[in-house]
Design goal:
This protein is α+β, with helices and mostly antiparallel strands. It has one domain: Sufe protein. Chain: A, CATH 3.90.1010. It contains 6 helices and 3 strands. The longest helix has 21 residues. The chain is globular, with a radius of gyration of 14 Å. It starts with a helix and ends in a 13-residue tail after the last helix.
Length: 143
């Protein structure tokens, strides 16, 4: 499998790794079939994602997509972050092999799951805003 230089960079030097102890929202998504599990933590100040961290157990593409997704939403408003699609993550990484596209879907779902958790903690039902966060349907297995 051939990865772009950007994917390799985000895999070997992932950005925003770790956890936020007093996170305003935490989202965890994963798929037992492919073994990828992503956990994303967000800190929100005045509707802006001021900090974001992730922990990912998975293949190189899963780590790279998590890293890129955090870079793309840091400093953005929640509304802007919710517009982030897995396709935008793939484009920012200059492409992914077809068998690894599901990793970008997981990265998008982890971010949306963290925002959903943030809304729940505010007493707001996230479903009308974010939609239903289903399982990663197109998982073909990573390992």
């Amino acid at each position: 499998m051939i990865y772009s230089e950007k994917v390799m960079d985000h895999f070997t030097n992932p950005r925003n790794v770790g956890e936020i102890a007093d996170a305003d929202g935490v989202g965890e998504v994963g798929n037992a079939k492919c073994g990828d599990i992503m956990k994303m933590y967000i800190k929100v100040d005045g509707g802006v994602i001021s900090d974001v961290k992730f922990k990912t157990f998975g293949c190189g593409a899963a780590i790279a997509t998590s890293s890129m997704a955090t870079e793309l939403i840091k400093g953005k408003t929640i509304d802007e972050a919710l517009k982030l699609t897995n396709r935008a993550v793939v484009e920012a990484l200059e492409g992914l092999p077809p068998a690894k596209l599901h990793c970008s879907v997981l990265a998008e779902q982890a971010m949306k799951s963290a925002i959903a958790d943030y809304y729940k903690k505010q007493g707001i039902d996230p479903t009308p805003i974010i939609g239903d966060l289903g399982e990663c349907e197109d998982c073909q297995g990573c390992h």
